[in-house]
Amino acid sequence: MKNQRTIISLGTIPIILALILSGCKTLQKVPGEQPVKEAEQSTIFFFTDGGLSSLKDDVREAHANQHKIYAVINFPGHTDPGRIIPLQMMIANLKEEVNNLVTNYDIDGLGMDISDLAPELIEVMVVEAMMLKPYLVNFVIWSEDEEYKSASVFLNEGMVDMIIPESKIARTDTKLHEGLANLHLNLKKIKPEQVIRLDLSHLFPESPGGRKLKLGQSNKSLITDSDGCVSFILTKPDTIELMTEAGSVEISTADWIVPYSYMVNTGGKTVRKSPWVEFRRMPKQFTDVPEFDLLCKTDYPAKVWINGDSVKQYKTGIFFKKIKLNEGENRVRATVMTYDSLSTFYEREFYYTRSDRKIAPFPLWIDEKSVEPVADIELLRDDAVQISFRGSLGQDAYVYLTHGKNPIKCMREDNEDYSRYRAELPLGKLTPGKSYKLILKLIPLEGSTDKQALEFTVQNIIKIRELVDFPHVRVRNENSRLTYNLGGPRLGGPIRSELEPGVIMKTTGKIGENYRVRLSSIESGFIHQDDVEMLPAETLLPSYYITSMSCAPSSDADVLSIPYPEPVPYEVFPDPDQKRIVVTLFGVQTSSTWITHMAGRRMIDLITWEQTTPCTYRIIVNLKTKDIWGYDLRIDGKRLVLKVKYPPVYDLSNEKPLTGLKIAIEAGHGGSGIGAVGLSGLPEKEINLDLSFRLGELCRSMGAEVIQVRDSDKDMSLIEKRDIAEQSGANLLISIHANAGGRGYLSVAGTSTYWHNPFWAPLAGNIYDRLLELGLKEFGVIGSFNYTVTRISQMPSVLVEQAFMSHAEDEEKLADPKFRQQMAQKIYEGLIDYLTAMN
């Protein structure tokens, strides 16, 4: 081939004739599925030797005949007749030619003849092509043994998708669609995440071109082009280290989005260089989903198109469109034009295969992930285990145990393409101490053509033990959660109580890592094994009689003193509708004949009691008002002390109406806890902190003392945040978050507020009503919300979810500092409304 090449001006890349290639083989695979049958495509190769005038027509004719077209750039070597061409100039010229060919012609692949070619040019060609069309197949052609060695290095190091021997290529003057051999479709090996282009001109402002550097990861040598850019291929690391003449530069890639084309500023910070566009959300390359919402982003403002259709751009820079896929190959392009008329595009290729997404009943199947129970179980012989699983639609299902002979038939609930099978397994006939496993069995209905039954053995162990064999346990950690059940919401099951160290309880079972504990003859709870320690077998369960209680005022609260000589479990139930707080002690019996009420009480009206079971004692703390400012129940030596706080002193008619109040504000997440990420990449932790500061400054200007629970971008545990708020002596706590969820980018939206303790519901309602004045949609006031920081009784505590970061319009508002200031104002006004009602 060498003797056929013609050295030409770099100003043109002409095309010659169709060339035929055979002998390349690959297997197309769909991610997560079985390999599909090899797909083939007739492929035409064009060499650049003479003119581009017919290229568009040739491409159109080739595609009309279901052929692929791979273009081969004829590029001069290190020399040009009569002069030496600097490498950085060759790189700049090659980038221009590749950009022209990829932008203006609908080719399917791009390659170069390796002879007399600087290796750096191969990477430049591949990177430049994939920055616009990452699906293009990239290759080199070799003709001699030495060239084969170089080509093999390119292939083995992942710099090209394939290498082609010149001997396999024959030029022909036939029509494009005649005499063609086949290539397989999925030749693409280099991933978009592997190609990187960096503009380093800011690091070398006086002379950006011709700068030599090395990649710290591979010791690969690089040289900047005349614009100060480098292009290379590298498996994406967390950090790229560039060794320059002036020292090393570390560049974090953690927040990068393809295409990886960035400008590097001093210190290794990266930004996009205009014009640019990125795909933020897209389907897998091989998909059976017929449509999707393509999400893109560029600088605002710009004119934006997706597949040629003009679409709306939001101020966050995002734009999107629902794309419907045709069977087979689909190319999707996003195009942008900046306000100063600079333009670029990015185009991806997706393969859609139509499939029936319903799951056939045969061969029989069981969804292992749906099987419940999901953990080892130790229970009493009087217990029963609830079993459920999903499996083939409409069959008979049975459950039995290893070593067992009597299967239990399951109830069946039919759905579109599966059934849910359920059964209850009594444990009364099991042998104590013996290990059993569940066996699930599906049997085809009578008359089915498939007669093969299916059995699945669940690996979790089931045991029964006698009550005396279950240990007593003692709480060893602060804030140990005692829950009603093991429900699986994101924030954990509903909490009965947070116990202090020392409380002793009797276990009656264990499910996974959680002990079941007996509270009374009719009530139980669950506590994690890490929160307790086992006690010796001879340990007695604590119990005692209550004879007297006393209630009196103090300097800052009404105080109820409850005898607590033994470490029994207890819980507190808030009941604002009845204007009362209920304290329940388990293992306690009444002998109550003396309840003292001292004069001067401001919050507590009357103390009464009731014995609800032989060992369950309820103390009803009747209040003078439901408008309280917090309460706290603590162990203090041999007594439990309940304090109901007095209202703070404030005057809303004051020029600074919050004078006298201390307000704690918690900015959600922080540090490595980013929280939700908006459609544009906006991190929740940042807007939470910003709004917290704005609200804090507003409250401070109105006379309040403000405690910023998270005062910077740092990691903090939820318990740490709560402890700061509790120990600060604050009168109120407001937690700031932003929401996310729902399908599509214009579906679920709106603002919301949350409370855990029903005494604080009015505060959540007042703030919510004010936030709606900003034009935000309603998502509601949500009660019993189990967020650790606001799950406190010591002060009115609520959480604000500003709006949805996953909704384009909501995120656009949240990204606007002026809107966040308006939100701070509305939260403040809701707080004033609450204070007015409480006053």
Any overview of this molecule?
This protein is mainly beta and 839 residues long. Helix content is 15%, strand content 38%. The chain folds into seven domains: 2-189; 194-271, Immunoglobulin-like (Sandwich), CATH 2.60.40; 282-352, Immunoglobulin-like, CATH 2.60.40.10; 366-467, Immunoglobulin-like (Sandwich), CATH 2.60.40.650; 470-534, Roll (SH3 type barrels), CATH 2.30.30.40; 544-645, Immunoglobulin-like (Sandwich); 662-838, Zn-dependent exopeptidases (Aminopeptidase), CATH 3.40.630. Strands 28, 30, 31, 34, 35, 36, 39, 40, 41 and 42 form a ten-stranded mixed sheet that branches. Strands 1, 2, 3, 6, 7, 8, 9 and 10 form an eight-stranded mixed sheet that branches. A six-stranded mixed sheet has the order 53-52-54-57-55-56. It is globular, with a radius of gyration of 36 Å.
Keywords summarizing the entry:
9 helices, mainly beta, 839 residues, ten-stranded mixed sheet, eight-stranded mixed sheet, disordered N terminus, 57 strands, 15% helix, Immunoglobulin-like, 7 domains
Please give a quick description of this structure:
The chain is mainly beta and about 850 residues long. It has nine helices and 57 strands.
